[in-house]
Design brief:
The protein is mainly beta and 153 residues long. Helices cover 5% and strands 33% of the residues. It has a single domain, classed as Umud Fragment, subunit A, CATH 2.10.109. Strands 1, 2, 3, 7, 8, 9 and 10 form a seven-stranded antiparallel sheet that branches. A three-stranded antiparallel sheet has the order 5-4-6, with no helix packed on it. It is globular, with a radius of gyration of 15 Å.
């Protein structure tokens, strides 16, 4: 997530939207471009991080294409596709290499880090796979440390 977040940053995660959705017997769905925290699907005791922070790129039923370093999302509203990074308030991910072309399964999200060069960011395109909605802890609300970089999201 470099450029936006760095290792060692301390974050406040808003768990209320997920809890509120559960109380209403609904599934919490974050917004596109939102930075979320979720349980690592590859976590094993003592190996790797239990929670991961990534940006939401695509939703169930959307086709994600990575070509020439740029993501393009195809859905019913945008049959010609669009770049999800255009809606991130100027926080765009770095260009990446490789190719990817898959549909996001029902009940899951496609997530990506902002530092996408090579295979630096393990995300939905290269190892994590898509993330089930039930693994989402909540959106990142605030970075509280380092003190000179406090900000809301």
């Amino acid at each position: 997530m470099e450029k936006t977040l760095y290792t060692g940053d301390r974050l406040i995660v808003n768990r209320l939207p997920v809890t509120w959705a559960q109380l209403q017997n609904k599934t919490y769905q974050p917004e596109r471009g939102q930075i979320i925290v979720f349980k690592n699907p590859l976590f094993s005791n003592g190996i790797g991080d239990e929670y991961i922070v990534k940006r939401v790129i695509a939703f169930p039923g959307e086709r994600v294409v990575l070509k020439d370093g740029v993501y393009t999302i195809y859905n019913n509203t945008n049959p010609n596709g669009f770049n999800p990074d255009d809606s991130n308030n100027g926080e765009t991910g770095s260009p990446t290499s490789g190719e990817y072309d898959k549909m996001v399964p029902n009940g899951e999200l496609f997530v990506s880090g902002d530092h996408r060069e090579g295979s630096y960011s393990r995300d939905s395109r290269n190892g994590l796979g898509t993330i089930p909605f039930y693994d989402v802890i909540g959106p990142v609300s605030l970075r509280i440390f380092p003190f000179n970089k406090i900000r809301s999201f």
